[in-house]
Amino acid sequence: MAYVIVEPCIGVKDSACVEVCAPDAIHEGEDQFYIDAYECMSCGVCEPECPVEAIYEDKSLPEKWLGYIEKSRRFFMDDTLDVPDSEPEWLKELNKRRDSFYKKS
What is the pTM of this model? Predict the structure, then answer.
């Protein structure tokens, strides 16, 4: 189980929930905050901190906001999130030199 942030957060983005989240599972999006289901430890500390009552346990989510589970999933699958480069700078430089060497041969 994890928690989900829904519609009342849109446009408000009060960060009280972020401040109490021990595993840092709450991330800021363009229009609202999102909880990463993989990082969330389901402690529930964030829920009472939300001034607009926008945080629900996924199992208790009102039907009208079920789409926010998918919206959250898509947010964390977005390629524009800061993902570490898979190739370190030193390896890029080495590959560039190697390519240059073979082009001369």
Answer: 0.72
